[in-house]
Amino acid sequence: MEVITAKTLRLIMLLGVAGGYLDAFTFVAHGGVFANAQTGNVVLLGVDAARGDVAGALAHVPPLIAFVLGVAAAETLTHPRVAPVVRRPVRVALVIEIAVLLVVGATPTWFASSAVVLAVAFVAALQNATFGTVQEWSVNTTMTTGNLRTAARATYRAVFRRDAGAAQQARTFGLVVLCFLVGAGVGALVTELLGNMAAWGANFLIVTGLALFFLDERPPG
Questions:
Q1: CATH architecture of 2-217
Q2: Taking a C-beta distance cutoff of 8 angstroms, is the pair 173, 147 a contact?
Q3: How far apart are CA 168 and CA 174, in angstroms?
Q4: Angstrom distance (rounded) from CA 66 to CA 115
Q5: Of 76, 95, 90, residue with least CA distance to 130
């Protein structure tokens, strides 16, 4: 049942809201940085390196390392040698996210933004690598470009080719993109009010997602 729950639209929508929320959180409270996607860091690393700005280039390396570590953590949870100990890796990934964001939310406002960004980059990578499917399609809950592309392509095929399957895919990915947008808006507003404590808002969404696994396990009737 765990695998089925992990691919449901309702869970992916919750995590999509959380993904947009966290991107807005780091952007508003921590220097205009998008911690979820590393495209900007790779580009800026190349630009600064080309300019000979070694210090500037090196500043973009830690978020990349944090992201790689998040992916490595997700892979470790499903490693054959770890599987006997970690029996429910998907749930454990959510618990790790919750724990990290609890710490982030408890940090004072004067705490180094770089450390907060690293923590969020790790969480985003862990979520990205763990939850990559909605129903039968590949999805991303921490970045929206690929989802928007899929929604646009499916919409075109649904309208101009009368493809019923594409229509369903367009609706699904349209909802995921909308959830990311809503999460970003809410995240920005809450972060303006609460600062670092706003990270706990994302935790509420992730805890709700974790609860779905237990609800799905309940025997019928």
A1: Up-down Bundle (1.20)
A2: yes
A3: 10
A4: 10
A5: 90
- Report strand pairing: 137-138 vs 133-134: antiparallel
Give tens-digit pLDDT for 143-173: 999 999 999 999 999 999 999 999 999 999 9
At residue 140, φ and ψ (nearest 5 deg) are -130, 125
**Could you tell me the two tokens for 15?**
């995590």
Three-class secondary structure of residue 133 per DSSP: strand
Task: Please state, as a whole number, how many other Cβ atoms lie within 10 Å of the Cβ of residue 159.
Answer: 12
Cβ–Cβ < 8 Å for 124, 36: yes
CA–CA–CA angle 178, 179, 183 (5° rounding): 120
Q: How many whole angstroms separate alpha carbon 75 and alpha carbon 101?
A: 20
For the purposes of burial, counting CB atoms within 10 Å of the CB of 181, is it exposed (0-12), middle (13-18) or buried (19 or more)?
Answer: middle
Distance CA 176, CA 41 (A): 25
Query: Residue 86 above 70 pLDDT?
Result: yes
Domain locations along the chain: 2-217
Give the C-alpha separation, 125 to 19, whole Å: 11
Read off the tokens for 21.
Answer: 């929320």
Helices (H), the chain: 2-6, 9-29, 39-51, 54-59, 61-77, 89-106, 113-130, 145-160, 164-194, 199-217
Model-level pTM? 0.94
pLDDT tens digit sequence for 8-26: 999 999 999 999 999 999 9
